[in-house]
Amino acid sequence: MSKKWGVKMEIKMNSISVVIKGKRIFSNITDTMNSGDMVALTGSSGCGKTTLLNCLGLIQPIESGSILINGKDTSKWNDKDKTKFWHKYATFIYQDYGIIEDETVAYNITLDKSKAKSKAVKNILDKVGLNGRDSELAIVLSGGEKQRIGIARAILKNASIIYADEPTASLDSENRQIVISLLKECASNGAIVILATHDDRLVSECNKVISLNKNRN
């Protein structure tokens, strides 16, 4: 990861608001994120951090306002456009790891058995501290190791945008620091890294913080 990867991206929120089942989750959020930004979405429990993350990932629709990606209004995108965006540019690191436990570590990174033994996968496993474990079943991994699999997927993909939902939740201090360092390196290599988190240590490493507590009404 010594070279820049992904393509240059900009995400712009213009006064976005979300209402779910008649309840206003947040309103009038305006901000801009660019390649190299590490962005923390913060706030008290239930304030809408994950909802905003999903909006930025085009998973959750917004009620009003607009989300522009490289100047294009995503409200005009159809399912094919969104699928293309995820295929080419974005990846999601899940709080519950998103691991297929009865498959190998290498397969969980590539999701393609024909690529699971490639040199690139071995190099990435070394990078995330899982070298030599490519043939092990993912079920034997610890929580921190499973979280590193999600980051390894982003590195293999050269993802331009990385979305992560509570990526350090329930990790011990050692794995927490490994995950934070890997996410920082992804940002330094050109990705926009967007994190829904309540981890103050992780927030302190971000160059941009968007607090949802100020946008509840």
UniProtKB/TrEMBL annotation:
Residues covered by the ABC transporter domain: 11-217
Record carries keyword Manganese: no
A cellular-component GO term for this protein: plasma membrane
Top-rank taxon, per record: Bacteria
InterPro entries per UniProt: AAA+_ATPase, ABC_transporter-like_ATP-bd, ABC_transporter-like_CS, ABC_transpr_LolD-like, P-loop_NTPase
GO molecular function term, any single one: ATP hydrolysis activity
Keyword set, alphabetical order: ATP-binding, Nucleotide-binding
SUPFAM superfamilies xrefs: P-loop containing nucleoside triphosphate hydrolases (SSF52540)
Gene3D superfamilies documented for this protein: P-loop containing nucleotide triphosphate hydrolases
UniProt name for this protein: ABC transporter domain-containing protein
